[in-house]
Amino acid sequence: MASDPFSSRRHNRFHGRVENDGRPCAIEGCTEAGEFRAPPPEGPASHAEGPRWRWLCLDHVREFNSGYNFFTGMSPDEIEAAQRPFSGWERETRAFAANGATPPPKWQDFHDPLDAIGAKFRERMKEAKARADGKPLSTDDRSALKILGLTPDADRKALRQRYTELARRFHPDHNGGDRSHEKALQEVISAYTHLRKAPAFT
Hints:
The protein folds into two domains: 1-84, no CATH class; 116-201, Helix Hairpins (Orthogonal Bundle), CATH 1.10.287.110. It is 37% helix and 3% strand. The protein contains seven helices and two strands. The chain has helices spanning 9-15, 58-66, 76-83, 116-127, 139-148, 156-170, 182-195, and strands at residues 36-38, 54-56. It has a two-stranded antiparallel sheet with strand order 1-2. Helix 5 (139-148) crosses helix 7 and helix 6 (156-170) packs antiparallel against helix 7. It is elongated, with a radius of gyration of 35 Å. The N and C termini lie far apart (86 Å).
């Protein structure tokens, strides 16, 4: 026996079908079960009156939906207001209200067993650290230092040593002709060329 496609609560809710105990369709002469909710012919009730519905069978609710007009009963001004592109945006919500801002979370309330947040924060603070000698570091300087794996306080000697180390590591002549590291080598050369002319290393 084939199962009813509307038998589960999930499918009932999705299709709008509501099982009942024999409630008939509200259309006169129809003997099918009224399992789909629709507004009455005179239109939905006002908020003061509370909800008001009639129950229709599948065929009649389809017929109702095909002829439904959202703007029925509205004045020309009300229709125009409902059709404006930003209709409803003039209502202030909590997120945008002047006094409705949600306070930021307190860091002490976070449980970070793997130290993911703290480690990332310390890494960024380390990258943004100023040099002990007070020499300036631009954003490009810091990016180049990161490529070379150097700290902000590295001096010219450390720069040359690190460049030599990485150039030997990535150069094809020093790893059996393997050219898979050519991109990394170009980045190292570019970073070194930039830093050796930077104010912090002159």
